[in-house]
Write a structure and sequence with these properties.
The structure is a single chain. With about 170 residues, the protein is α+β, with helices and mostly antiparallel strands. Helix content is about 45%, strand content about 15%. Strands 2-3-1-4 form a four-stranded antiparallel beta sheet. A hairpin with a 5-residue loop joins strand 2 and strand 3. Helix 3 packs across helix 4 and helix 4 packs antiparallel against helix 5. The relative contact order is 0.11.
Protein backbone atom coordinates (compact mmCIF):
# COMPACT_ATOMS: atom_id res chain seq x y z
CA UNK A 1 0.00 0.00 0.00
CA UNK A 2 1.43 3.38 -1.00
CA UNK A 3 2.16 5.97 1.68
CA UNK A 4 0.84 9.53 1.30
CA UNK A 5 3.55 11.97 0.25
CA UNK A 6 1.75 15.16 1.28
CA UNK A 7 -1.46 16.44 2.81
CA UNK A 8 -3.66 19.53 2.63
CA UNK A 9 -6.73 20.81 4.42
CA UNK A 10 -9.86 20.49 2.29
CA UNK A 11 -12.26 23.40 2.00
CA UNK A 12 -15.37 21.28 2.50
CA UNK A 13 -16.42 19.46 5.64
CA UNK A 14 -17.94 16.03 5.89
CA UNK A 15 -21.16 15.55 7.79
CA UNK A 16 -21.61 12.32 9.72
CA UNK A 17 -24.97 10.69 8.95
CA UNK A 18 -27.38 11.13 11.87
CA UNK A 19 -28.02 7.39 12.25
CA UNK A 20 -24.34 6.42 12.01
CA UNK A 21 -23.16 4.36 14.99
CA UNK A 22 -19.40 3.81 15.24
CA UNK A 23 -19.73 0.79 17.53
CA UNK A 24 -22.02 -1.09 15.17
CA UNK A 25 -19.95 -0.07 12.14
CA UNK A 26 -16.73 -1.38 13.67
CA UNK A 27 -18.35 -4.23 15.63
CA UNK A 28 -17.62 -6.99 13.11
CA UNK A 29 -14.04 -5.89 12.41
CA UNK A 30 -11.26 -8.00 13.91
CA UNK A 31 -8.73 -5.21 13.39
CA UNK A 32 -8.68 -2.28 11.01
CA UNK A 33 -10.25 -3.97 7.98
CA UNK A 34 -14.01 -3.70 7.68
CA UNK A 35 -16.02 -5.65 5.14
CA UNK A 36 -19.67 -6.21 4.43
CA UNK A 37 -21.75 -9.10 5.62
CA UNK A 38 -20.99 -11.63 8.29
CA UNK A 39 -18.42 -14.43 8.14
CA UNK A 40 -18.41 -17.12 10.81
CA UNK A 41 -14.83 -18.01 11.74
CA UNK A 42 -14.06 -21.12 13.80
CA UNK A 43 -10.55 -21.92 14.93
CA UNK A 44 -9.13 -24.76 17.00
CA UNK A 45 -6.10 -23.96 19.14
CA UNK A 46 -3.77 -26.52 20.64
CA UNK A 47 -3.36 -26.83 24.39
CA UNK A 48 -0.09 -24.88 24.08
CA UNK A 49 -1.82 -21.89 22.46
CA UNK A 50 -5.26 -22.08 24.10
CA UNK A 51 -4.35 -19.73 26.94
CA UNK A 52 -4.06 -16.86 24.42
CA UNK A 53 -7.80 -16.93 23.80
CA UNK A 54 -8.82 -17.92 27.31
CA UNK A 55 -7.00 -14.97 28.88
CA UNK A 56 -8.13 -12.22 26.52
CA UNK A 57 -11.34 -11.16 24.89
CA UNK A 58 -10.35 -10.61 21.24
CA UNK A 59 -13.72 -9.72 19.74
CA UNK A 60 -17.24 -8.86 20.85
CA UNK A 61 -18.66 -11.99 19.18
CA UNK A 62 -16.01 -14.33 20.59
CA UNK A 63 -17.27 -17.68 21.85
CA UNK A 64 -15.08 -20.36 23.42
CA UNK A 65 -15.65 -24.09 23.55
CA UNK A 66 -13.33 -26.23 25.63
CA UNK A 67 -12.22 -29.40 23.87
CA UNK A 68 -10.36 -32.52 24.90
CA UNK A 69 -6.68 -32.50 25.87
CA UNK A 70 -6.73 -28.79 26.74
CA UNK A 71 -7.57 -27.59 23.24
CA UNK A 72 -10.05 -24.77 22.75
CA UNK A 73 -12.26 -23.80 19.84
CA UNK A 74 -12.92 -20.11 19.35
CA UNK A 75 -15.46 -18.57 17.01
CA UNK A 76 -16.08 -15.04 15.80
CA UNK A 77 -18.56 -13.34 13.47
CA UNK A 78 -16.47 -11.02 11.32
CA UNK A 79 -16.95 -8.86 8.26
CA UNK A 80 -13.46 -9.34 6.79
CA UNK A 81 -10.74 -12.01 6.96
CA UNK A 82 -7.60 -9.91 6.41
CA UNK A 83 -6.66 -9.19 10.03
CA UNK A 84 -7.71 -12.58 11.38
CA UNK A 85 -5.57 -14.26 8.70
CA UNK A 86 -2.48 -12.55 10.10
CA UNK A 87 -3.57 -13.39 13.65
CA UNK A 88 -3.97 -17.09 12.81
CA UNK A 89 -0.54 -17.17 11.14
CA UNK A 90 0.97 -15.92 14.39
CA UNK A 91 0.00 -19.21 16.06
CA UNK A 92 1.84 -21.29 13.44
CA UNK A 93 0.94 -24.96 13.69
CA UNK A 94 -0.95 -24.44 16.96
CA UNK A 95 -4.05 -23.09 15.20
CA UNK A 96 -6.32 -24.98 12.83
CA UNK A 97 -8.89 -23.13 10.73
CA UNK A 98 -12.13 -25.11 11.00
CA UNK A 99 -14.10 -22.63 8.91
CA UNK A 100 -14.48 -20.82 6.56
CA UNK A 101 -12.56 -22.47 3.72
CA UNK A 102 -11.54 -19.05 2.35
CA UNK A 103 -9.67 -18.32 5.58
CA UNK A 104 -8.01 -21.75 5.52
CA UNK A 105 -6.90 -21.15 1.92
CA UNK A 106 -5.58 -17.66 2.75
CA UNK A 107 -3.59 -19.00 5.73
CA UNK A 108 -2.10 -21.83 3.65
CA UNK A 109 -1.22 -19.44 0.81
CA UNK A 110 0.50 -17.01 3.19
CA UNK A 111 2.37 -19.82 4.96
CA UNK A 112 3.59 -21.20 1.63
CA UNK A 113 4.64 -17.72 0.57
CA UNK A 114 6.65 -17.38 3.81
CA UNK A 115 8.31 -20.75 3.22
CA UNK A 116 9.21 -19.81 -0.34
CA UNK A 117 10.58 -16.43 0.79
CA UNK A 118 12.65 -18.16 3.46
CA UNK A 119 14.03 -20.67 0.97
CA UNK A 120 14.85 -17.93 -1.51
CA UNK A 121 16.60 -15.95 1.20
CA UNK A 122 18.63 -19.00 2.25
CA UNK A 123 19.65 -19.61 -1.34
CA UNK A 124 20.72 -15.98 -1.78
CA UNK A 125 22.75 -16.05 1.43
CA UNK A 126 24.64 -19.11 0.18
CA UNK A 127 25.50 -17.23 -2.99
CA UNK A 128 24.97 -18.35 -6.54
CA UNK A 129 26.97 -21.30 -7.73
CA UNK A 130 28.05 -21.42 -11.32
CA UNK A 131 28.04 -18.70 -13.90
CA UNK A 132 24.32 -18.01 -13.97
CA UNK A 133 23.61 -20.92 -16.27
CA UNK A 134 21.73 -22.68 -13.46
CA UNK A 135 18.80 -20.23 -13.33
CA UNK A 136 16.32 -22.45 -15.21
CA UNK A 137 17.29 -25.36 -12.94
CA UNK A 138 16.81 -23.17 -9.84
CA UNK A 139 13.44 -22.01 -11.11
CA UNK A 140 12.42 -25.59 -11.78
CA UNK A 141 13.52 -26.69 -8.28
CA UNK A 142 11.65 -23.75 -6.72
CA UNK A 143 8.51 -24.65 -8.66
CA UNK A 144 8.85 -28.30 -7.61
CA UNK A 145 9.23 -27.26 -3.94
CA UNK A 146 6.22 -24.99 -4.19
CA UNK A 147 4.20 -27.82 -5.74
CA UNK A 148 5.32 -30.16 -2.93
CA UNK A 149 4.33 -27.55 -0.31
CA UNK A 150 0.92 -27.13 -1.90
CA UNK A 151 0.36 -30.89 -2.02
CA UNK A 152 1.40 -31.24 1.63
CA UNK A 153 -0.92 -28.40 2.62
CA UNK A 154 -3.82 -29.96 0.73
CA UNK A 155 -3.17 -33.34 2.41
CA UNK A 156 -3.10 -31.62 5.79
CA UNK A 157 -6.36 -29.79 5.09
CA UNK A 158 -8.01 -32.99 3.86
CA UNK A 159 -6.81 -34.93 6.94
CA UNK A 160 -8.09 -32.22 9.29
CA UNK A 161 -11.45 -32.13 7.49
CA UNK A 162 -11.71 -35.92 7.82
CA UNK A 163 -10.94 -35.68 11.56
CA UNK A 164 -13.57 -32.95 11.94
CA UNK A 165 -16.17 -35.14 10.21
CA UNK A 166 -15.26 -38.10 12.43
CA UNK A 167 -15.62 -35.96 15.56
CA UNK A 168 -18.98 -34.63 14.37
CA UNK A 169 -20.22 -38.18 13.77
CA UNK A 170 -19.02 -39.30 17.22
CA UNK A 171 -20.44 -36.27 19.03
Amino acid sequence: MAQPSSSRVAAETIQRPVKFDVASHLGTAFGVWIGRGEIVVRLRLSADAAHHVRERHWHATQQLTERSAGEVEVSFKLSDLHDVTRWVLGFGGDCLVVEPPELRDAVVAEALHAVDAGLASAQRSRGSKGGGGGRPAKRRRRQERQHQHEQAARRFIDDEADEEEDEDEEG
